[in-house]
Amino acid sequence: MDIFLWVIVPYLCLATFVVGHFWRYRYDKFGWTTRSSQLYEDKMLRIGSPLFHFGMLGVVGGHVIGLLIPISWTEAVNINDHMYHYAAVGGGLAAGIAATVGMVILIYRRRTVGPVFSATTTMDKVMYLFLGVAIFFGMWNTIAGSIFTLGGEYNYREGVSVWYRSFLAFQPDASLMAEAPIGFKAHALVAFALFALWPFTRLVHVFSAPVGYLTRPYIVYRSRDQKLGSHRPRQGWDSLSK
Amino acid sequence: MRVMAQMAMVMNLDKCIGCHTCSVTCKQAWTNRTGTEYVWFNNVETRPGQGYPRRYEDQEEWKGGWELNKRGRLKLKAGGRLKKLATIFSNPKMPSIQDYYEPWTYDYSTLTDAPAQQHTPVARPKSLLTGKNMKVKWSSNWDDNLGGSAATLKLDPMLKKIADKVKFEFEQTFMFYLPRICEHCLNPSCAASCPSGAIYKREEDGIVLVDQDRCRGWRMCVSGCPYKKVYFNHKTGKAEKCTFCFPRIEVGLPTVCAETCVGRLRYIGLILYDADRVLEAASIEDEHLLYEAQRSLLLDPNDPEVIAAAERDGIPHDWLESAKRSPIHALINTYKVALPLHPEYRTMPMVWYIPPLSPVVDVVKDTGYDAEDTTNLFAAIDALRIPVEYLAELFTAGDVEPVNKVLKKLAAMRSYMRDINMGREPDGSIPASVDMTEEEMYDMYRLLAIAKYEDRYVIPPAHAEQAHSLEEIGTDCDVAKYGGGQQDYFGEGSGAQTPLAVENFQMLKDRQTSDSMASPDDKESRVNLLNWDGKGAPTGLFPPRTEAADGPDGPAETADLR
C-alpha cells in the first residue's frame, strides 16, 4: 500500500503532468490562455486576484525552499532549526492567508457574478476543488501541525522533504512518507492529483509567465507566415549543413 | 535609412454618410462569433460624441499609447515592463464590458412558440453573457447622429478641451462621422505592451496582427492601445484585432470595409517609410510638430536614393511601382490633405483622414452666401473657429494651422472645379492661393471626387516574386525528399504535397477507365431535365427497362405516354 501511494501514484501523476503538458502544447496552443474574466467584473478581481496570485507565488517559493533545501545546507550557513522554523511558519502563514483570502474572494465572485459563473467550465470547478483542498490541508499542516503541534511534533524537513528529494532523484523511499502525519499525507496526495489535472486546466498559464518581456525589444517584427495558403513556398536550395 | 513598406489607408470624411455598411460587412466577415459580439474591428462614430468604447480618447484615464518621460525618452503611458508584470494579475486600466456594452440577443422563439393569447408576444432582450433577461442601456452606436447628445455630449473628451461657452454653438453647427479601424501604427503600443510578444508587425506590409497561438490573455494590449482597437474575446480568452483583411490584401483585394464602402471614401495603398527614424519622430517634444514629423518619415518613392535603398532592403520591384502610384502617398505627401488621427498618442498611426469641409459649406449656405466661392469659404474657415479647433484636437494635437490649410485646399478645389463644370474659364489664382498648380488641383479633384476603383486601391499582391515556385509552373528544384518541404507528421497534412498536375492526371485516368455514372454508355440518348418543358415524355426520359423487370404490358405503357 505504501509503495502504491508514495511511489506508483506520484510517478503516474508526474508522468501525466509532463506528457500532458507536452501534448497540450503540441495540439492546443490556441487553448493555452489565462481565460481571464476581468472583462466581466473588475471590482472584486482587483482585490482577489493579486492577493491570490502573489500569495501563491509565496507559497510556491516556500515549498521550493522547504522541500528542496536539505537541513545540512541551512546549517552550513548557521541557520538553526529554530530560526528556520520561525521564518518558515511566518512566511508560510502570510503567503497562505493571502492565497486563501484571495481564493475565497475569487470563488465567491465566480459564483455570484452572472457572466463569470456562465463562463466557468466543469474543469474549472474540479480544479478549484482540488486546489482548495490542497490549500486547506497545507494551512492545516502549518497552523495545527507547526504552531499548535496537534498530533505531536513533526519536522517535515526530516521526513516529507527527504522523501520528495528521493522521489525527484528516482530512488523513492516510501517509508519516509508512511511515517508522516495524516495531514501531510493528505496534502501530498491531493497536490499530486492536482499535478495530474494541471495540464488539462487553465493552470497551464503558469508556464507562460512572461518573463521574456523584460528583455525583448518593445516592437516585434515578424515575416509573413510562410505556411499560409495551400502550399508552402519551397526554399529552392539546400543548406550546406545538411 | 532602412526602407520598409506599409499598407495604409486614408478616409475622406466629407463623403462619409454614416451608413455603417463598413461596420456591418466587417462584422459579418470577421466577428460574428461567440465571444466577439461586442467586438467591432470597424466602427463609425458620430462626432462630437463619446466614441467606442465610451470616452476612449481620454488618455488621462485610460493611459493608452506613449508619452515622454522626464528625460524626453519615449515610454508607455501605462508604465514600463516591470509595472506591467507587477499588475498582470489585475490590469488596472482594462475597460470593463460596461464601457463597451453588454451584448444581447432577443428571445425570438417566443414570437412563434407562444400560445394563443390576448396580447402579442414580445421577444425580450437576453444577455449573451449570462443568458438572462436584461435591460438594454447602451450599445456601440447609442449616440448615433447626436442621438441623446443633450445628455452625453459633455462626455466627449475632445470637446472638453474646447472652451465651455462655445459648446452649444458647436452642437448647432457641426456634426460628422468618423469611421475607425485599427491604425496599424508604425510604433504600436499594443505590441509593446504585450507581455507574451504575441502581437507583431509584419515586415512585408506593416500589418499588425495577434498570433492566436502565442496570446496568453494577459490583456495588456487592450489597455495599451490608445484607440482601444484591440479587443478581448471573452470566449477564447485571447486578444483579437482588425487584421487589415490581410488574406484579401495579400491577393491584391481591398479590405472588406473599403470594398463595401457606399461613399467610396476609403483609399488603400503602400507607403515607404524610414524605419530607422520612427523612434526619433515619435519622441519629438512639441506635440504640434508630431504631424509634420510623421509625414517626414514617409519617403518619396520617386526619389532615386529611396529607390536604391528600397531595392537594397529587399522591397520587390512591383511593390515599388505600386508605391509610386499609391493614392496614400499622393494624399498625405503630394497634396497634403490627409492628417493622422491623434498623433499625440505617439504611436504613428497609419490610417489617415481628410477632414470634412461640408459642415463649413453648410454654414455658409445657410447664411445665404455663395457656398462655392473661395472668398466666402476661406472667410468661413477663419471665422468658424470651433469646428476647426475640434478637428485640430482630433488630427493635429490641437494645432489649427494644418487643419486650416487642408480645409482651404478643399474649398479652393470646390470653387475651381465649379468654374470648369459650369463651362467658365478656370481661375488659376484659386489653386495658387493654396500653393497648388492648376494641374495638381485637377489631379486632386480626380482622386477625391471621381475616385475610380483602380485609383482608390493600389494594392500589390504579396509574393508575386515567388510565382516561379507555384506548382503548375514548377521551375524550381523539389527539396521535399531531401528534408525540406512539409512539416506536419500526422493526419491529413502529413507526407509531401501531391502536385496538382498529378492529381489532375489521376482524376482523368479514373474517369477514362471507370464504369461509373460519370460517363454512362447511353449518354447521348438521355434527356437534359433542365431543358425539358414538362410536356410529354421525350425519348430517353426513362431508362430502358430490362427484360427481367418488364411485366407483360410494361413497354406498352411507356409507348402510350408518348
CATH top level of chain A is: Mainly Alpha
In CATH terms, the superfamily of chain A is: Transmembrane di-heme cytochromes, Chain C
Approximate helicity band of chain B: 25-40%
Number of strands of chain A: 1
Describe it for me?
- The complex is a heterodimer of chains A (242) and B (562).
- By secondary structure, chain A is mainly alpha-helical.
- Chain A has one domain (2-214): Fumarate Reductase Cytochrome B subunit.
- Chain A is 62% helix and 1% strand.
- Chain A is built from nine helices and one strand; from the N terminus they run H-H-H-H-H-H-H-H-H-E.
- In chain A, helix 2 (43-68) runs antiparallel to helix 4 (81-112), helix 4 (81-112) runs antiparallel to helix 6 and helix 6 packs antiparallel against helix 9 (182-197).
- Chain A is globular.
- Chain B has 562 residues and is of the alpha+beta class.
- Among the domains of chain B are: 470-513, no CATH class; 525-562, no CATH class.
- Chain B is 35% helix and 11% strand.
- The interface between A and B is large, with 52 and 67 residues.
- Strand 1 of chain A pairs parallel with strand 8 (199-202) of chain B.
Overview features:
heterodimer; A: 242 residues; mainly alpha; Fumarate Reductase Cytochrome B subunit; 62% helix; 1% strand; B: 562 residues; alpha+beta; two-stranded antiparallel ribbon; 11% strand; globular; disordered C terminus
Produce the secondary structure layout:
The complex is a heterodimer of chains A (242) and B (562).
Chain A: H1 2-27, H2 43-68, H3 71-76, H4 81-112, H5 114-118, H6 122-147, H7 160-168, H8 174-178, H9 182-197, E1 221-222
Helix pairs in contact in A: 1-9, 2-4, 4-6, 6-9
Chain B: E1 3-12, H1 21-30, E2 43-47, H2 59-62, E3 66-68, E4 74-76, H3 81-86, H4 97-100, E5 104-106, H5 109-113, E6 125-127, H6 149-152, H7 157-160, H8 167-173, E7 176-180, H9 189-193, E8 199-202, E9 208-210, H10 220-224, E10 230-233, E11 238-241, H11 246-249, H12 256-259, E12 266-274, H13 278-282, H14 290-297, E13 298-299, H15 304-312, H16 317-324, H17 327-334, E14 339-340, E15 351-354, H18 358-366, H19 374-383, H20 385-395, H21 400-421, H22 429-433, H23 438-450, H24 453-456, H25 500-513, H26 554-561
Parallel strand pairs in B: 1-15
Antiparallel strand pairs in B: 1-12, 2-7, 3-4, 5-6, 8-9, 10-11, 12-13, 14-15
Helix pairs in contact in B: 18-19, 19-21, 20-21
